[in-house]
Amino acid sequence: MCGIVGFNGHVQAAPILLDGLSKLEYRGYDSAGVAVRNGKNDVEIVKAKGRLKALYEKTNDGLAMAGDCGIGHTRWATHGEPSETNAHPHCSDDRNVTIVHNGIIENYLELKEMLEKAGYSFHSQTDTEVAAKLIDYYVKKYQKGPIDALSRFMLRVRGSYAIAVLFAECPDEIYAIRKDNPMVIGVKDGNTYMASDVAALLRYTRDIYYIGDNEMACMGKGEVTFYNIDQEVIEKDVTEVKWDVNAAEKNGFEHFMIKEIHEQPRAVKDTLNSVVKDGKIDFTALGLDEDHIRNFRQIYIVACGSAYHVGVAAQYVLEDMAEIPVRVEIASEFRYRHLLIPENSLVIIVSQSGETADSLAALRIAKEHGAETLAIVNVVGSTIAREADHVFYTLAGPEISVATTKAYSAQLIASYLLAIEFAKVREKITDEQYAGYLEELQTVPGKIEKILDDKERIQWFAAKYANAQDVFFLGRGIDYAVSLEGSLKLKEISYIHSEAYAAGELKHGTISLIEKGTLVISVLTQPDLYEKMISNMVEVKSRGGYLMGLTTYGNYGIEDTADFTAYIPKTDIHFTPSLAVVPLQLLGYYVSVAKGLDVDKPRNLAKSVTVE
Ligand code: M6R
After folding, report:
1. pLDDT number for residue 182
2. Which residue among 17, 155, 523, 593 is least crowded, i.e. fewest CB within 10 A of its CB?
3. H helices of 393-551, where?
C-alpha cells in the first residue's frame, strides 16, 4: 500500500527520499511525490503519476531539488483516481503545512465541509488534502505550534493514519503522527530518517524507533523527540533490526518472487530452529507455558489472504493432532460478526506484515472479548506483534514480492509447531510421536530443495497454459487448504481467473463450468482421500477437462487419469502443504513470467493492506 519516507540531515534530501521510495515500491503504488525544504524557502513539491521512474526523471534523480529536509510518498489510490493532482504530498494553499499520508481519514467529508465553511477550498479528491488543511486550520486558530495542532488533529479525526508533516514555521524539522499505520524513525551520524517500512531505512541505519499509536515525533537533524497525545515528552528505546540488507535485494534472480521461493528451505529451517532446541519445542520466548496450553478450550485463527490459507491448513493439523476445536476466520468478517468467544479461548492472528488493518482490528476485538492472543508475525516490532499477548516470530526475513511465498511457508511451520506442542501438553500424542514429528519437520527444507531442483518441468507446463482463461483447483482435507493458496498465487500474478474448491463440492454446481480443455489442478497428497480424489478427476476428465495432478512420489497410477503430474516427496500427512504449495507457487510465477507481467508488483495489489 502507500509508502512514506522522510529525511532531515546534512546532505541533499531528494536523492535519499527517492532511494527510500524505491525500497517501498514493492508495497504497490500508482503515483509518487516528494516535498523538500531548502532552509526558509517555500517547500518545493514534485509529483508524478505512474512508476517512480517518472519522478526520478522529473527531478533529475533528485538532484534538481535543493534542500536537506523533506518527505516523500508512493500512493495507492483509495480516495480519487491515480493522478498527479491526487498524488501526495498535499499542502495548504499557502504551503504553511505540507503532508504525506498513509491510511484513511474516515470522517473526511464532514471535516471538509467544516473547513469549507472556514474558507478553505479543495483541489483533489483525497482525504489527505483535508488532513493537511485541518492541521493548517489548528495551527492558525490556536497559534500554539505543531505539537498542539497535531494533537488536536488526532483527537478530531477518525480512521487510520501515518502522517509526516512539514510546517513552514519550522524549516529544520519534520513531524510525524500515527494511528494503526506503521511509521519508524532512525537516527545516524547527524541525520534522521523516517519511513513507513523498515526496508527503506536499512541502507542507512539498523537502529530504529517505533512510533506508537496516538504518538507524535519531531525529527530534527540527528535527533528525535517523541510525544504522547497529551503533548508530554516520552522516552523510547531503540530496537536493532537484524535483517540482512542483501535480503531486500534480488541477488541475481530475475524477480523477488523466485528468489523468495528459493529462500523457503532457509526460512523453514530458521523458523524451526528458533524454537526447537535439543529435540524439544521451547516456547519460553512466546510466553506460552504448559499451564496456559492445557487451559485453552477453543482456538480461533484469524487472518487475511494467504495467511488465512495457513489458518485453513493449521485447523486440520491442530484438530487432528491436539484434538482441540479450531475455527478459522477471515479477519474482515470476524471483526464485524456478533462474536461468542467462549472462556479460555486462544485467538491466533497470522500476518506477515503485522500491519494488516483487518487482522489488527480482529486482534483488538479478540482482546476486548477477553481472549488470550497469539500473533504469528514476520515483521519484528510491527503493531500486531506489539499488541498481541504472545508472539511467534517467523524468520522468513524481509519479503518483497507482493505474492507471499516464504512467509507463508514459515507460517505453516509455526502452526505445525504449535499443533505438536499442544498435542504433547494435552497428552494426545506419545513421546515417540512427538519426536517423530520433530524429526520429520527437519527433513522439510531438504524436500523443498528437491522440488525446486525439478522446477523446469513446471516452467514448461506453465508456458503451455499461460493463455488459460479459467483454472480450477481441487483438493480434499488439508489439500483443499493448499488448493486455496495455489489458486490465489496463480490469479494474483497472472490475472487468470482461478478458483479453488473442496473436491466434494464439484458436483454441487461448479462442474457445469468444466468444458473441453478447462485446466483443473488436483492436489492429492492424503492417502485416505486419494481414491475419492481420483473419482473427482475422472468426472472432470469425462467432461473434457485437462487434468494436472499434484501428488507424492509413488502414486504413479495417477498417470492413467491426469494429463500432467507434478510429484513431491513423501512426508507426514500433516506437513504436506509445505511441499505441495511449492509447485503451485512455481506455476503461478512461471505463468506470470510467460505472460510478461510485473510479477513482483501485480496490478491493483499492495504488499501490506493497511486500510479496510
Ligand atoms: O501481511 P499479511 O500476512 O497480514 O497479509 C495478508 C494478505 O494480504 C496476504 O497474505 C496476501 O493475500 C498475499 N500477499 C497474497 O500473496
Report:
1. 87
2. 155
3. 406-425, 431-453, 455-464, 478-494, 530-541
Compute the Cα dihedral for 259, 260, 261, 262 and give only its sign. positive
Task: Provide the pLDDT for residue 612.
Answer: 75
Cα of 350 from ligand 1 centre, angstroms: 9
Q: Give the DSSP letter of residue 417.
A: H
Q: Which CATH class is domain 446-598?
A: alpha beta
Q: Which residues contact 5 (CB under 8 A, 6 or more apart)?
A: 16, 17, 20, 21, 24, 71, 72, 73, 193, 194, 195, 196, 200
Mutate to test the pocket of ligand 1, among 256, 264, 304 (most ligand atoms within 8 A of CB): 304
| E strand or H helix that includes residue 289 | none
Q: What angle do CA 581, 586, 588 make, to 5 degrees?
A: 95
Mutate to test the pocket of ligand 1, among 264, 335, 356, 603 (most ligand atoms within 8 A of CB): 356
CATH of 3-241, one of 3.40.50.970, 3.40.50.720, 3.60.20.10, 3.40.50.790: 3.60.20.10
Measured distance CA(1)–CA(13) in Å, rounded: 23
Determine the residue type at 383: T
Question: Cα–Cα distance between 420 and 321 in angstroms, integer?
Answer: 7
Per-residue CA distances from 50 to 82, 107, 458 (Å): 8, 28, 33
**CA of 229 relative to ligand 1 center, distance in Å:** 31
Residue 181 makes CB contacts below 8 A (sequence gap 6+) with 102, 103, 160, 161, 162, 196, 355, 610
What is the reported pLDDT for 167?
A: 97
Looking from the CA of residue 407, the nearest atom of ligand 1 is 3
- Domain boundaries for CATH 3.40.50.10490 within the chain: 251-442, 446-598
Residue in the structure block whose three cell numbers are 507460517:
411
Whether the Cβ atoms of residue 227 and residue 234 lie closer than 8 Å to each other: yes
Residues with CB under 6 A from ligand 1: 304-307, 351-353, 356, 359, 402-404, 488, 492, 608-609
356 CA from centroid of ligand 1 (Å): 8
pTM of the model as a whole: 0.78
CATH (residue range 251-442): 3.40.50.10490
* Residues with catalytic function: 2, 607
Which residues of the chain register pLDDT less than 70? Answer: 1, 244-248
pLDDT tens digits, residue range 4-48?
999 999 999 999 999 999 988 877 788 999 999 998 888 999 999
pLDDT of residue 245: 61
Distance 607 CA to ligand 1 centre (A): 7
Distance 351 CA to ligand 1 centre (A): 7
pLDDT (0 to 100) of residue 246: 62
Q: Sign of the CA dihedral 434, 435, 436, 439?
A: positive
Q: Closest Cα to atom 4, ligand 1: which residue? A: 351
Q: Whose CA is nearest to atom 11 of ligand 1?
A: 305
